[in-house]
């Protein structure tokens, strides 16, 4: 089954919302990473954890220059945090990752925030296919999720 990046993003947001609701803030980032990856795999998505990204810059080759927390379906970067408050550098980090891997969309999810809404941000890198950019939740788990973000988003 083919899913575009917006559909993948919606599934990730829904799963992360349920994870935040069920476990709450305060655990190590690695715990949220393991559980979220497993939740996404149960939903039929291909997830790569701590994906090492190879890139070249100015004639220098980097075999392990960065690691993406989660790469979902090969099209969505998910950077996880478990801190009291996201710093501006965290969104810039995700944007740098997106540029280096040449992907259009990423999610920055902070499980340390008091509410899920405070902890989720959508980061775009020349993302043009926003025809289905609504953050939706799985019909099986009806909830109202609204993301805060720097980039334009059509939230329900």
Structure notes:
With 156 residues, this protein is of the alpha+beta class. The chain has one domain (5-124): Trna Endonuclease, Chain: A, domain 1. It is built from four helices and five strands. The protein has helices spanning 5-23, 29-42, 88-101, 116-119, and strands at residues 47-57, 60-72, 76-81, 105-110, 120-124. Strands 1-2-3-4-5 form a five-stranded mixed β-sheet. Strand 1 and strand 2 (60-72) form a beta hairpin. Helix 1 crosses helix 2 (29-42). It is globular, with a radius of gyration of 15 Å. Residues 135-156 have low confidence and may be disordered.
What is the CA-CA span between the terminal residues?
Answer: 25 Å
General shape:
globular
Helix content: 25-40%
Radius of gyration: 15 Å
SS summary, helix count: 4
* Name of the level-1 CATH class: Alpha Beta
State the major sheet.
5 strands, mixed
Number of strands: 5
Classify the secondary structure makeup into a structural class: alpha+beta
Order of neighbouring strands in the sheet with most strands: 1-2-3-4-5
- The sequence of SSEs as H and E is HHEEEHEHE
Low-pLDDT stretches are: 135-156
* Percentage of residues in strands: 25-35%
**CATH architecture classification:** 3-Layer(aba) Sandwich
Could you tell me the mean pLDDT? 84
Oligomer: single chain
The tally of structural domains comes to 1
Assign the CATH topology.
Trna Endonuclease, Chain: A, domain 1
């Amino acid at each position: 089954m083919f899913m575009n990046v917006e559909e993948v993003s919606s599934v990730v947001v829904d799963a992360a919302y349920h994870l935040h609701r069920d476990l709450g803030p305060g655990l190590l980032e690695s715990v949220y990473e393991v559980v979220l990856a497993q939740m996404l795999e149960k939903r039929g998505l291909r997830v790569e954890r701590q994906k090492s990204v190879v890139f070249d810059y100015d004639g220098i080759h980097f075999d392990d220059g960065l690691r993406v927390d989660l790469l979902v379906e090969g099209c969505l970067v998910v950077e996880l945090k478990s801190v009291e408050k996201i710093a501006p550098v965290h969104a810039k980090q995700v944007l740098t990752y997106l540029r280096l891997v040449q992907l259009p969309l990423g999610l920055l999810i902070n499980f340390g925030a008091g509410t899920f809404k405070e902890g989720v941000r959508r980061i775009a890198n020349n993302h043009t296919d926003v025809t289905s950019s609504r953050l939706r939740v799985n019909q099986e788990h009806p909830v109202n999720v609204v993301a805060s973000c720097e980039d334009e988003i059509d939230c329900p």
